Amino acid sequence: MSKEASNPESWLTDHGDYLFRYAQSRLRNEEQASDMVQETLLAAWRGWERFSGNSSVRTWLVGILKHKITDLIRKEIRNRRLAEAVESDPTSSLFSADGRWIEAPTSWKENPEDLCESDQFQKTLQGCIDKLPEKQQIVFRMREISGEDTESICKTAEITSTHLHVLIHRARLALRTCLDHHWFGGNRHS
Amino acid sequence: MNHFCREASQLQSDELERKLTLMERIQLRMHLLLCGACRNYADNLQLLNSFFHNLRKQTEKDESITLPDHDRERIKEALKKASGS
Q: Are B2 and A175 in contact (CB < 8 Å)?
């Protein structure tokens, strides 16, 4: 391995922004995200001899970062366990006793590419996600923002896949309603 | 009479997460044929799903998000200390 390649300061220069983006999109907290970058680079430096060279340095660093983020999220979920005992179920307010929609969903006319371009939409969306109960927020973000698979989310959140699917379903229902009121509905009426 | 919309909404979300059983698929498809509201819900979920998919691709490339300078300096110091240079 070249001396250059094992220089942690050059990792910071070459991959610091990428790692930060990766962490920031998953944690949405600048301070935590940059702490994760620091811990990752330090761990990489300490474990340099374990780097096999089969993958790129970036892939290796992202692998370390991913573990660090998972650990952090797991700790947060554990710390909040008590407060999370009661999880809200939006289905009772969205469906009548006989199982019908109280307010029937209407079709949304926009396309996903345009929505991705819209900062305003992303703000509205974040606002809606922030309103979800904490555990739903955490697993929903892992699922949709980070794109983690069921297995890894269940491991991190220490829940069964059935429980995860219920949480994701509830989050989607609540999010749909929130976006309908604050974005799509607003457009419909204007 | 009991309506299937509540169950259908769970199945539609589940379909994005796991393979539905044959029975679940039949129940859901049958219901969607008859229920416009649930078809709209399906469209809404589809739109959100594509949106998040695009968003994930976009964030990794978004170069406007960078490590703040003071953090970069702090990390540089920490690395210097650790590597003893």
A: no
